[in-house]
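Please decode residue identities from the backbone states below.
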């Protein structure tokens, strides 16, 4: 059973996961608009991953006897100066999400909520991976600089990303993950 404080914190984080998805959907749309279809595909895959994360929180709140509250998600930016700008904003956002996950873990520790600590451990590890991936992409983009051939190659590379998270949650997140691989 989630405490009221933990339930409120989880509902706030649920909003942030949906916000993350919205941000990446916007970046996908922008990338597509400027002709970087590979970047668009990478951000679309990121969108689906964030939606799966949101649904994991959504279901966990309910399984723990909590009430899900869907809080307002703000409109994300739709303009970016460059691919580097998008990935710098992505890294900044992922660091924000890492802090949120760490704060949730600290609250679970304070409340001696062991089940929630176990649930959150996956997200702690996931955030390490998220930041590492974005840092790697940013490093490559900085090496490329203004080289359009390099940008074309990077677009091709990012376009190879596939969605590894399920997109159909009608049977629940765990069932979707098992069905998807």
């Amino acid at each position: 059973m989630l405490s009221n404080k933990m339930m409120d914190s989880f509902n706030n984080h649920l909003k942030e996961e949906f916000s993350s998805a919205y941000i990446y959907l916007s970046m996908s749309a922008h990338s597509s608009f400027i002709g970087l279809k590979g970047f668009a595909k990478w951000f679309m895959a990121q969108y689906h991953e964030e939606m799966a994360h949101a649904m994991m929180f959504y279901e966990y709140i309910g399984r723990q006897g909590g009430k899900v509250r869907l809080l307002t998600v703000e409109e994300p930016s739709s303009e970016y100066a460059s691919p580097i700008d998008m990935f710098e904003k992505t890294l900044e956002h992922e660091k924000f999400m890492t802090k949120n996950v760490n704060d949730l873990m600290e609250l679970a520790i304070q409340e001696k909520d062991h089940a929630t600590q176990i649930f959150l451990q996956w997200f702690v590890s996931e955030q390490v991976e998220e930041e590492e991936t974005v840092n790697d992409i940013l490093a490559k983009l900085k090496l490329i600089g203004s080289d359009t051939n390099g940008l074309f190659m990077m677009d091709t590379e990012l376009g190879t990303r596939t969605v590894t998270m399920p997109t159909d949650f009608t049977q629940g997140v765990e069932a979707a993950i098992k069905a998807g691989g």
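Observation: The radius of gyration is 17 Å.
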